[in-house]
Amino acid sequence: MERQTPATTAPQRTSLRADARRNRERVLEAADTVFSEFGPAASTEEVARRAGVSIGTVFRHFPTKEALIEAVVIGRLTQLTAEAERLADAVDADADADADADAAFLIFFHRWIELSATKYQFAGALSRSGTDVQEIRNTHPDVGRKLHDAVGVLLTRAQHTGGIRRDVGASEVIALLVGASRAHEHVGLDADQRAHLLSVIIDGLRGSRPAT
Amino acid sequence: MERQTPATTAPQRTSLRADARRNRERVLEAADTVFSEFGPAASTEEVARRAGVSIGTVFRHFPTKEALIEAVVIGRLTQLTAEAERLADAVDADADADADADAAFLIFFHRWIELSATKYQFAGALSRSGTDVQEIRNTHPDVGRKLHDAVGVLLTRAQHTGGIRRDVGASEVIALLVGASRAHEHVGLDADQRAHLLSVIIDGLRGSRPAT
DNA sequence: TATTAAGCGGAGTCCCCACTCATATTATTG
DNA sequence: CAATAATATGAGTGGGGACTCCGCTTAATA
Lengths: 212, 212
Hints:
2 copies of one chain form a homodimer.
Chain A: H1 18-38, H2 44-51, H3 55-61, H4 65-93, H5 97-116, H6 121-125, H7 133-139, H8 141-160, H9 170-185, H10 191-206
The first copy, chain A, binds a DNA duplex through residues 16-20, 23, 43-45, 53-57, 59-60, 63-65.
């Protein structure tokens, strides 16, 4: 609660020894892989093994398993945010912005699904596994806000070109993306059905009936 | 399948002692509640406590924690199936079936969300928690099939009346329902946004643009 | 190269939890 | 009500996993 500072991810201003920085990175990568594959219930030792590091090292960099999971989640949210910002910038740079705004939104949609595939469901799983997404929102409000804003930019532009209905906000779109990922992961669907499923959802976003 | 057969005075297989049957039921209820609240990671002791029973009793009725979780999941799937069948029967009984077929589908859609709320996410969570939904499908193929069929009936009729696009199947609808539940649970949305989200998804199912 | 402190390794501690078993209780039956 | 078989109980067991500790290693610096 009275937690002070030592943020988990970004501030690498602290001069870490070369090997330390390298190991920290390896651990993060390994954690991402392992938790994606086995969920947050995977043991810390498994992460250490995958990173080619001793368990003591894992705990040196992340004082708690929860902190490790949090770092992974933040990393993913940050990646998605960067993706959204990148797409928005690409639209800016282009002359024929109108057509691209719609395309950019769709690309982001699919990119989200892609990045989430078999992975992000664990974000939902960890809700009841000690760490809570809500908690991360509290301790790192900026991460969520940035994602929200970045999605908001893409959304607003796509709405302006008429591609996307105007009665939805960034929060709703994000929720929809989360749901779409989950639906997409649903067992028992083949590739065609998965793709089709996404088109159904996107059609909903295009606004079949001018509700209100 | 264990339908009550003749009562030749001989309590067939179900010859559980009265208290045993009662306790079994209590445990199932408690498990449903507890797992809904804390996810499948909740301890068996917690379930026992909630059921007002000793831990030994829990294991007498369900030899494994996994078996207990499985029983809860099957119970829910069965409940959803019954709900779908009930709605289909209601349409049958009505004269003005056309209008009702569409309404029945929508009611089922909302009913699913309602029954899943804050609950069913655990079905996704347990995917990586030992038990796997896929596994239950293998050991109890009939449960999944019945649900699929029941949804199929509602869907086909709604499509026939023109309310729902014809290029989606029961599997896709179920996946969409799962995703919709997940989106609906998403933190950071108020009641209005949640409702709105569902309408967006349903609009997609209505087929905004006659794609293909 | 010598010095030194940051880092690392990994065996060990502690706690939690699924599951068992010997004993006590109770529904059922005649 | 007695007999007995089915149940319930709950302390106990075993294993796994998060986290610690301290001696050894090595990057950084003069």
